[in-house]
Amino acid sequence: MQEDIHFMRQALKEAGKAFEEEEIPVGAVVVMNNTIIGRGYNQVEKLNDPTAHAEMIALTSAFNYLGSKYLPEACIYITVEPCLMCAGALYWSKIGRIVFGASDEKNGSISRPPFRDQQSLSPFHPKTVVVKGLLQEECTQLMKLFFKSRR
C-alpha cells in the first residue's frame, strides 16, 4: 500500500505540471519492478492534440523504454479515471494493473453507464486488475481547484 501511495503521489506531481501549464490536471506514471518507466501529464492544449492525455504519453514513454508494446508486468497510476480512448490503449497494452484516484462520472471508462451498471462490460483487458479511489480526495481536489480557477 505504501508503494501505491508513493507512485500515486508521483502521478500527482505530473498532474501538477499540467495544472501549471493550464491543462486539465491529470498525471500518470507507469511502474515496473518499483521503477517508473513512463511519465505523462495532459498536454492536449500544448500539443493541439486531443489524444495527448496523460495515460497515452506515459504509455508511449514506457513502450519506448522497454522496446515492447505490451506491459503485463507493469502498473499505471493515474490521478483521474481513464476515458474510453485511454481505456482502449490500456487494453491493447495488456497492462497488469491500473490504479486511479478520482472517478470521472462524465467521461470515465467505468463510472458512467453502461459500465457503471454492468461491471462485466469493463473496457480493460480481462487479466488487468483495477484499483479505484487511491488518494481520491487529493486527486479530486486538484481537479476542482483547476475548474474553479477557470470560471
Strands, helices and their partners?
Blueprint: H1 2-20, E1 27-32, E2 35-41, H2 44-47, H3 54-66, E3 75-80, H4 84-93, E4 97-102, E5 129-132, H5 136-150
Parallel strand pairs: 3-4, 4-5
Antiparallel strand pairs: 1-2, 1-3
Can you describe what's shown?
This protein has 151 residues and is α/β, with parallel strands linked by helices. Helix content is 40%, strand content 19%. It has five helices and five strands. A hairpin with a 2-residue loop joins strand 1 and strand 2. Helix 1 runs parallel beside helix 5. The longest helix has 19 residues.
Strand content: 15-25%
Average residue pLDDT: 93
Category by helix and strand content: alpha/beta
Which ranges are low-confidence, i.e. pLDDT below 50, for 5 or more consecutive residues?
Answer: none
**Major sheet, described briefly?**
5 strands, mixed
How many strand elements? 5
